[in-house]
Write a structure and sequence with these properties.
The structure is a single chain. The chain is mainly α. The chain folds into two domains: about 60 residues, no CATH class; about 150 residues, no CATH class. Helix content is about 60%, strand content about 10%. It contains twelve helices and two strands; from the N terminus they run ββαααααααααααα. It has a two-stranded antiparallel ribbon with strand order 1-2. A hairpin with a 2-residue loop joins strand 1 and strand 2. Helix 6 packs antiparallel against helix 8.
């Protein structure tokens, strides 16, 4: 609305008092004492907070209220907390928790989370194929060296360990670097979005579509560890074929024409 602190706004209640000439809407002017932002677009664009007595006067409620809001210390257990109230308020009131109020938002986030998981899995697979191709080329380039090591007494198991160690070191280095870059991008996520918007000239994060005014972030340590473990497992699997290829090198065939 472009209203600043100290200015006034007029709120109209269409359901005003009934007079012989019809219903007269109630109009009351209020001074803006503060402007709040909770980060949820639907709340920030339409909610006004005022003393309950003034709200009752505006809405012609007398000494009654329309809604009672309860804040819990553990929102994830809201169903267990509200369970004792259900039989007491049966046929007298309706209980709506935060999950049902924001069901559409959670459904959109669930779909986006699945889509992002698929995309990121494909990226991890591409990285694994890069490790695989690099090790295969390394084995081809070091074929003569591998043959010399075999003639000097190196066993197949030792060659397996060498190339598996190289592959795991590459994968581990990528995981550590990815964690560092991920933490940096998460910390400066909104700045990154603003920078991309500045470069492209497009609004990438419209609160009216995204529901939230800023890009949220909540890191789950269990998911991070699971992703790191999965990436490390893929890196290990990618080393098996090149390592077996190196271990099966026949020094006689390689050094025949040396």
């Amino acid at each position: 609305l472009g209203v600043q602190v100290g200015q006034s706004i007029t709120i109209i209640n269409p359901a005003g008092r009934t007079t012989p000439f019809g219903t007269v809407p109630r109009e009351i002017s209020y001074e803006v004492a503060a402007i709040f932002e909770v980060g949820v677009y639907d709340y920030d664009k339409a909610f006004v907070i005022m003393p309950i007595e003034r709200a009752q006067v505006l809405m012609l409620l007398g000494d009654e209220v329309g809604i009672i809001e309860i804040k819990t210390e553990n929102p994830d257990k809201v169903n267990e907390i509200l369970a004792p109230l259900l039989p007491k308020l049966e046929n007298k009131g309706l209980i709506v928790d935060w999950k049902s109020m924001n069901a559409s938002l959670f459904e959109a986030l669930a779909v986006e989370r699945v889509a992002m998981f698929v995309v990121l899995s494909i990226i991890v697979l591409v990285a694994v194929f890069n490790i695989l191709s690099s090790l295969i080329m390394l084995v081809r380039a070091k074929t003569r060296d591998i043959a010399i090591l075999r003639t000097m007494g190196a066993s197949r198991k030792s060659l397996l360990r060498i190339f598996m160690t190289v592959g795991l070191l590459i994968g581990s280095s990528g995981i550590v670097l990815g964690l560092i870059l991920g933490a940096i991008f998460l910390y400066f996520r909104q700045s990154v979005v603003n920078f991309i918007q500045l470069l492209t000239g497009q609004n990438l994060w419209d609160p009216s579509i995204r529901f939230l005014t800023e890009l949220p972030s909540r890191t789950d340590p269990v998911e991070v560890l699971a992703i790191c473990g999965l990436a490390l497992l893929f890196s290990f699997l990618a080393t098996l074929y090149p390592a077996l290829k190196a271990a099966s090198t026949d020094p006689v065939q390689v050094l025949r024409y040396e």
